[in-house]
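hiii so um. not sure if this is the right channel but i have a protein structure encoded as tokens and i wanna go backwards to a sequence. like what aa goes where. can anyone help
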């Protein structure tokens, strides 16, 4: 099976280890995995905090950062659409993240089955620990992804 694997994780930490292990496991099972991820995520050293992204998260107002997260979906959508056209995958596998509807848009546009990997209810986690400025938008984005994935 040809799997289009999408994530928005930029840091090289425990999340990255999980992503790498999932990709290795899928490949070990004989699947071809095409990865669409933020630029530069492969070149970071292990333990890095995502550089400019981490700096922005610490220094700009939360609502602006959250809008930037949502805006990244348009970038991701273009990357995913190009990958679908080039590779003709059998399915889309997306690691869930808040403010990231791009995978659902691709699923709908191209009729791809979509597996959504959910490791935590990120809306609840971020609202409790980091705080969210755009709670309504965040709640919508989580529900939208969870309800529309296959």
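sure thing!! here u go:
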């Amino acid at each position: 099976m040809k799997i289009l694997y999408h994530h928005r994780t930029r840091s090289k930490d425990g999340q990255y280890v999980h992503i790498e292990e999932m990709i290795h496991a899928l490949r070990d099972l004989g699947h071809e995995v095409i990865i669409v991820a933020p630029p530069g995520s492969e070149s970071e050293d292990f333990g890095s905090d995502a550089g400019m992204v981490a700096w922005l998260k610490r220094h700009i107002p939360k609502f602006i950062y959250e809008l930037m997260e949502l805006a990244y979906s348009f970038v991701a959508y273009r990357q995913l659409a190009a990958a679908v056209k080039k590779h003709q995958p059998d399915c889309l596998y997306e690691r869930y993240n808040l403010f990231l509807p791009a995978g659902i848009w691709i699923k709908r546009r191209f009729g791809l089955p979509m597996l959504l990997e959910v490791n935590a209810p990120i809306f609840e986690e971020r609202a409790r620990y980091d705080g969210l400025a755009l709670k309504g938008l965040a709640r919508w984005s989580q529900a939208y992804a969870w309800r529309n994935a296959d």
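oh and The longest strand covers residues 2-6.
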